[in-house]
Amino acid sequence: MEILLIRPFQLWANILLRIIPTTSGEKEAFTYYRDGMSAQSEGNYAEALQNYYEAMRLEIDPYDRSYILYNIGLIHTSNGEHTKALEYYFRALERNPFFAPKLLIIWQ
């Protein structure tokens, strides 16, 4: 079932990359983010983290960076590294206060 969800996401992501006017750096950052999401959904956390860290290096928009940080936090939560996860969640919140409701759900 997850594989069926990943393919449409990748298809739409590729279409968006072609039609939305963006710089090459933004496209590259999104490509790493997309690949990180795919790897994360398949349980390949090490690969996902590598892609997210590369996306963080390239992404300049604070709002977009907040989503990358949030996903890194989710991986650390899944790995039982709760202190490290909290660091990333707080960094995501600094850039995007709208993450507060999502984080409350995780902590319950």
UniProtKB/TrEMBL annotation:
Residue windows of the TPR repeats: 29-62, 66-99
PROSITE patterns the UniProt entry points to: TPR (PS50005), TPR_REGION (PS50293)
Keyword set for this entry? Answer: TPR repeat
Keyword flag Protein biosynthesis: no
Top-level lineage group: Eukaryota
Q: Signal sequence span per UniProt?
A: none
Against SUPFAM superfamilies, the record matches this protein to: TPR-like (SSF48452)
Protein name as catalogued: Photosystem I assembly protein Ycf3
Q: Which organism is it from?
A: Saponaria officinalis
